Amino acid sequence: MEVRRYLPVEGAEEVAAFHFLNFARKQKRLTLKEEKMMLLRSRSGERQATETLVNANQTLVVAVSETYEDDRLNFMDRVAEGNVALISACRTYLPKLD
Fold first, then answer.
1. What angle do CA 57, 60, 63 make, to 5 degrees?
2. H helix intervals, the chain
């Protein structure tokens, strides 16, 4: 049996990036108080809090992804790696409770 590899539609990367950037721009920013509260809830394992934090910080992920241009990883792969790092940080970072 022959295995066929299907290549993505030309320009699919640009379309995905366009839709992602629109999504990132529409996300509500959190206040410092909201962010601290979400971090504490995320650390306790609440998935919705982690998702809220990740979505609210997509513009940060985009900014960092744009600064690390690399021939090995395209933009959306760098964004995905940034999101993995952000999820990990949400689960381990302990904010100061001033």
1. 155
2. 12-26, 32-43, 47-56, 58-67, 75-92
The pair phi, psi for residue 76, each rounded to 5°, is: -65, -30
Q: Which residue has the tokens 């979505």?
A: 55
* CB-based burial label for 98 (10 Å; 0-12, 13-18, 19+): exposed
Q: Is the pTM of this model over 0.90?
A: no
Q: What is the pLDDT of residues 51-83, one digit of tens each?
A: 999 999 998 898 888 888 777 888 888 899 999
Taking the C-alpha atoms of residue 91 and residue 84, their distance in angstroms, rounded to an integer, is: 11
Q: To 10 degrees, what angle do helices 32-43 and 75-92 make?
A: 80
